[in-house]
Each structure stands twice: as C-alpha cells, then as structure tokens.
C-alpha cells in the first residue's frame, strides 16, 4: 500500500513498482485516515508511508498503522534534511522498519526505482505466523547452539543495529537498570545528518545522557556513546581511562559505521568484561566483530527472529554459534541486568 498525499507521487511510485513482477500494489491512500480504513479489509506486506501529510501526519498514524497492519512493515519515505531527519528518526523509534530519502521534484526516475525495489525486498513479506500475531513460525527458526555467559563484571556494553533496530534499541534501553557499571556504546546504521536526532531519541528512551562521539572523547560509566554516521566507533586505553578513536578504514562488512569495528575494539580493550548485543538488521555486520569479542573472552547476545524487522545480522551471529542468548529486546535487557548484577539468569 502506498500512502502519500500527492496524486503524482502515488502514480509514479505505483508505476515504478508495477514494473517489477514480484510486487503488487493492493491499495492507494491519500492520507492517514484512508490508509487506516483500507487496512480494515486489505492485507499488505509493506506500507510505503509519507511523513508530512495534511491532517493526521504519517508519524502520528504510524502506531495505529502498525497495529492494524497485522505484521505489515512500514517503509518511511522522507527527504534527507534536518526536518526530515528528525521526523524519520522519530518514525524509526516508533517502529518503522526502514527509511528511504525522498527524491526532489523531477527526480522520481532512474536509479530510485531500483533502490526502492531493493529496499522493499530487504524488508520482505509478512510470514503467516506474524500475520496471526504469533511471530515467525517454528519451522522458520534455525537450530542455535548457545555459548556460556562469562561470570565476570560488566566493563562495557556495545549495541549494534541496522534496519528495524532503532525501535528495538528503544525497547532494550528503557528496560535496563539504572546502574550497569560501565559505558554503553551504540552503532546504528544511519546517515550522519540523522545522528543528533537519534541521540535525543536514545537519551529519552534510556533516561541516560547520550552523545554522538568525537575523537578523544573519554568513556564514562552509565553514559551512552553513539557512533557518528561517517566513522567507526573504536577505542583506546590509556592507563585506567578509555577514550574514543574514530576510524574510516574499510570494514569487512562494507558498513560505515560498522558494528564489526566497534565489537572488535571492545574485545581488544575490555576482553572478558566486554558484552555486545546485535539487534535487527540486514546483512552480516557484527559477525566478524562478534567472533573477535568472543575470542577475547567477552560475550554476545542477539535479538530473536520473532521481534526483528530483518533477522540478518542477529541470525549470522547466532548461526555461527557465537551468541549466549537469543531473546526479545526486553528479555535481552533483563539478561544484561542479571550479568551486571552478578545474579543467575532465569
């Protein structure tokens, strides 16, 4: 379903997707109210949603669209500018699966059509289990061998996420206890212009100070340090203090910033006191870094398939036998809390 107040945008987007045999446009809506009415009778896999519309905005309607969509994913289309960035980050925090920069006037052509199709394929179809509200079916879940969790104190918590990860991060962070004993690092795949808004969303969800990192920034316990959109978040130790170093060296995953680079650095600096968590995302970013973190004596947890918008990054780590737990974001937070407090996990 395409939801956009511009008849021209709806027509052009429909024509673009109709050129791909694996897509079917089942509904068009000119505003949020029409979209919500359509979802009463039409089943969809993906809702392509404009943010700024007359009346109820796409942002205001998003929670109800997700509820009525019965497992449908939402792709937000927004211009990459400061206002668009803020709205898009809010949408991701509310549960949108992904975003796509909206081309300017006259640029709905050429490569955008292929990018749009690729992004929709990445989000994928709704499974029968998800449509019924039960998550993925048991047949879709792979066999996973879990590793033992170290019983050492928690020195640093590193969180990695991509597509669908911002909402999961919010659920995780708001469920953490106020005291962990170490800093929290975050690498989320987003454009650099989004990061100030992302930091505000993270701070609000976590109830902690959250900052986008700069070179040389010193890590402090209980604070959140967020990777820039144009550099890897790496670490260096000087005596008892640890500070941020920024790197733009190519990562094995091809991502910038990369979860691999962050996890690798946490393993080097914190060893068995380092703990990583991999949330929803496409691809395998985090796999190489997880292996290094585990080899250094640390541990990695991953989000489960049932709650992930895209179970790519978590799946790669889980199927490699590197995860100590595969859980929902809230349960992952409880697992981290148990580790930080030195109590057995139940």
UniProtKB/TrEMBL annotation:
It is an enzyme of class 3 (hydrolase). One of its GO terms (cellular component) is cytoplasm. It catalyses: [protein]-L-glutamate 5-O-methyl ester + H2O = L-glutamyl-[protein] + methanol + H(+). Pfam families: CheB_methylest, Response_reg. SUPFAM superfamilies: CheY-like, Methylesterase CheB, C-terminal domain. The active site is at residues 162, 189, 285. GO terms for molecular function: phosphorelay response regulator activity; protein-glutamate methylesterase activity. Its EC number is 3.1.1.61. Residues 1-117 form the Response regulatory domain. This is protein-glutamate methylesterase. It comes from Allosphingosinicella humi. The lineage of its organism: Bacteria, Pseudomonadati, Pseudomonadota, Alphaproteobacteria, Sphingomonadales.
